[in-house]
Amino acid sequence: MKKGKTFLYFLFIAFIATIPLWIQSSNTIDDFSHDGQIISESIPSFKIENDQLVTNEPVKSYIYQTDSIIFTFDPNGERTIEDVKQDLIGDIVGIAFLENGLYFSIPGYPIHFPYTQLNGLTSASFIDLILSVQSFGSTLQILTFGMVFLISLILTFIYTLLSTLFANVLSMITGKQLKIGENFKIVLVASTLPTLFIAFLNSVGLVPAFQIEIKTMVTLFIYYLAIRAIPKGKK
């Protein structure tokens, strides 16, 4: 393949790898939109002023959990960020108003906002923010796909490059004189079937153990089948 076709094929492989990630992200957004409305009904009246969380009346700390969100409201200092982290399992989104700050976590991306940065925030404005996810659902889907595709491009390049290094060693052992650029192209095409198979499994919610290692081994096996017909010492 020429460089142009190689680049297009690289985009194709990255697109395949994006599909399960996007499905998971889309489901998270849809669940958050639905459960956010439920959570908003339980939020007591509050405001943040003078770097503190202030309620209109004494409120007991509580935890409200739905299928996709764990909401913690703890103005009394009964829980810590570590306690909240232990509550989060799988794809659950965590929102916690703690004594000293707001802790927000989507899977793998925790963020902590001290109340010094949130002065002026009220329960009404926070509820509006949660409900706005439902209003901008389609826009968020597009933005999510763009972000996930960008991440997939980076991961696909890293995976293909590392697999190419192993393939380069394999080509030397088998006596083939292939340049690293040629090996990159062959590995890219050889990764098609395992990428499709892993993407299919992940799309239906199945995540095999050691799937990266399995994908690499299958890719290198297909690579070996592709180069074994090449005479030794010749391209």
Strand order of the largest sheet: 3-4-5-6-7
Please describe the biggest sheet, giving its number of strands, its sense, and whether it closes into a barrel: 5 strands, mixed
End-to-end C-alpha gap? 14 Å
Tell me the Rg in angstroms: 24 Å
Number of strands: 7
| Helix proportion range | 55-70%
Give the overall shape, derived from the CA principal axes: elongated
Low-pLDDT runs of 5+ residues are none
> Strand fraction band?
5-15%
Give the SSE string: HEEEEHEEEHHHHH
- Helix-and-strand structural type: alpha+beta
Mean pLDDT: 89
What's the tally of helices? Answer: 7
Secondary structure topology:
Layout: H1 3-40, E1 46-49, E2 52-55, E3 62-65, E4 69-73, H2 81-87, E5 93-97, E6 101-106, E7 109-114, H3 123-135, H4 137-173, H5 180-190, H6 192-203, H7 211-227
Parallel strand pairs: 4-5
Antiparallel strand pairs: 1-2, 3-4, 5-6, 6-7
Helix pairs in contact: 1-3, 1-4, 1-6, 4-5, 4-7, 6-7
